[in-house]
Design goal:
two-stranded antiparallel ribbon, Glycosyltransferase, 347 residues, globular
Length: 347
């Protein structure tokens, strides 16, 4: 960018900080200045920089003086174009969603972490870089909020992060956060980035993996009750899971929805073990009630198990499995390849 163009850009920035009454005047002035810069670059070269700066001072001063004079006529401002309005609404949604915990009906956390791949591995440049940088910064803030050194979320005495702020069924949020933290650390490692900043402090990617491990280990039995919240894992796990397939016996009798209630309300352990199902989890005091009728403790969900599987895969094996050179090109096609064409027809 030439000095003349830099000056014009600075003028435009200053103009946008002026009172609203000056907008209509400045829109014309900006156009005039931009045109004069183009002509001046050809006619005067570097000497035009001083002329442009003087013109800027005169115009800005004139606008300020105009703003001091009471207007005689009221000029309505034109409504924003559709793109500006859409961007404004999108940013409102973005700001409202960016620190919500990842869950089945709130996908923003997942999407912004996935979009970090584009910025870290492809460097798309302008204009995509602007919005990707915003999402990258938001991802960093989210990762900072998971660290115990900050107080964004409470933790139980046993160490379970309360992403849903002490409300029931906490584990589905925890496993998804553990997955995202591990995935984000893998992205940074693949991009040869050792960590990220939380304010002025730098944190290693190892901190994220440690967060994920402690949360998953809690779920698998390293908690005050020494209970695994994954059915069939360990020696102590829930026996009264809130699940029809687990609680209704396989006695070749077809039960309708209402007919299955007697099994739901039975105090006996489940006749069938739904191996691998993660229940809703303990409360904010690390307490757990193994009661089938209380789904806030004993209900497994697809959203919870999806996050559990993802987190376990991310934490298993040797470090990251991310290959930044093939992460986009190695995706298999969505449809099978077309069959070869038939042989040429012959009479």
């Amino acid at each position: 960018m030439t000095p003349e163009m830099s000056t014009t850009a600075a003028i435009m920035v200053m103009a946008r900080n002026l009172p609203p009454k000056a907008f209509s005047f400045l829109s014309t002035s900006e156009w005039i200045l931009h045109s004069e810069v183009e002509r001046g670059q050809k006619a005067f070269g570097g000497r035009f920089l001083a002329i442009t700066m003087i013109a800027a001072v005169i115009i800005i001063s004139g606008v300020i003086i105009i703003d001091k004079v009471p207007p005689r006529h009221h000029h309505s401002h034109p409504p924003p174009d559709n793109y500006t309005l859409a961007l404004h609404k999108a940013l409102m949604f973005f700001n409202a969603q960016k620190l919500l915990p990842p869950r089945w009906d709130k996908k923003f956390s997942f999407v912004q972490v996935l979009l970090n791949r584009l910025r870290l591995f492809l460097s798309p440049g302008h204009p995509a870089e602007d919005i990707l940088l915003i999402l990258h910064r938001s991802s960093e803030i989210m990762m900072c909020s998971y660290l115990p050194v900050f107080t964004s979320f409470n933790r139980t005495k046993g160490g379970l992060i309360q992403l849903n702020h002490g409300r029931p069924q906490p584990l589905q949020y925890v496993v998804n956060a553990a997955f995202l933290a591990t995935l984000y650390s893998d992205y940074l490692e693949a991009a040869d980035t050792p960590g990220w900043y939380c304010g002025p402090n730098f944190y290693s990617i190892e901190v994220l993996r440690e967060f994920a491990k402690t949360q998953i280990n809690y779920i698998l039995g390293e908690n005050p009750r020494k209970m695994s919240y994954v059915v069939g894992f360990g020696n102590l796990y829930p026996k009264h899971v809130h699940h029809r397939g687990a609680s209704i016996p396989n006695n070749r009798v077809i039960y309708n929805c209402k007919g299955g209630w007697k099994w739901r309300d039975s105090p006996k352990p489940n006749p069938n073990i739904v191996v691998g199902a993660m229940v809703a989890g303990p409360d904010k005091n690390d307490e757990f009630r193994d009661v089938r009728t209380n789904y806030n403790y004993t209900e497994p969900t697809l959203a919870g198990n999806a996050g559990l599987v993802a987190a376990l895969v991310a934490l298993s094996g040797d470090r990251t499995g991310i290959d930044k050179n093939t992460i986009f090109s190695a995706v298999p096609p969505m449809f099978p390849t077309a069959p070869p064409p038939p042989a040429p027809w012959k009479p």
